[in-house]
User: Fold this.
Amino acid sequence: MLLERAYAKINLTLDVLRRRPDGYHEVDMVMQSIDLSDLVWLDCRSDSEIVLDLNAGHIPSDERNLAVQAAMLFRKYTGIRAGVQINLEKNIPVAAGLAGGSSDAAAVLRGLNRLFDTGLTSDELADMGAEIGSDVPFCIYGGTAIARGRGEVLERIAHPCHLYVLLIYPRVFVSTADIYQALQPTDFVTAVQSERMVQALMEQDVDAVPYLVHNVMQHVTFAAYPGVKQLADKVESVTRHPVHMSGSGPTLFCLAPTVQQANRMYNALRGVMRDVHLSHFVSNISNSGDGEV
Assistant:
């Protein structure tokens, strides 16, 4: 049995350029992996079934789950017919703007590549993952990247900047599709923010990065879900620090340059609200399998 970690991501920038003829939106965003992760155990079965067992009863375990879709796609591409057992421990909140499902799919692809010793490169796995979802290619590699197109065209970035991430989970379900549909032409941009963010990361400017975080969808989600906006205002009043949203939400986050500051913010928030998690940036994960268990 093999263990793969499926790391969550946050958006350091998210700009939408236009609505594409295929119905998707053209985006330009900086994505960053953080150490909050689901745990994905993989093993062969004696039959030919793909079976997913997980610790969250409200999540489907059939073909609607991206982890199962990833296993099906892997077998289609490789011609492998062996059964696959997937045991999934969910720690990343569902539908939270943290790419939990996409990261699970990426972990399955990476893990099956090791389990069956198929020798596929990360680039090949990323191309495969793009058929499942726009965030899956990024989740194959992890670390930091500028994502363009639908999110599947990646420019990977290696930088020395390490920041701590305070995550706050509003207990609200946000529909990504609805938020994208609510975008107006005035929300589309021509001047993207990714290059400024990457420059600050490369220069290790930990003081500037939190103030360069940008998400064009944040005001749309806040308008559609006033409770998320109210929570963001409360977090900002407690931390006296910029509060941001990842993806289409609803997860909120603050960035801190030191573990001491992060702990102070964490302790202050824990005194007044639930669902606060302390995390940090992680770098390239495409070759970081956790081995056999």
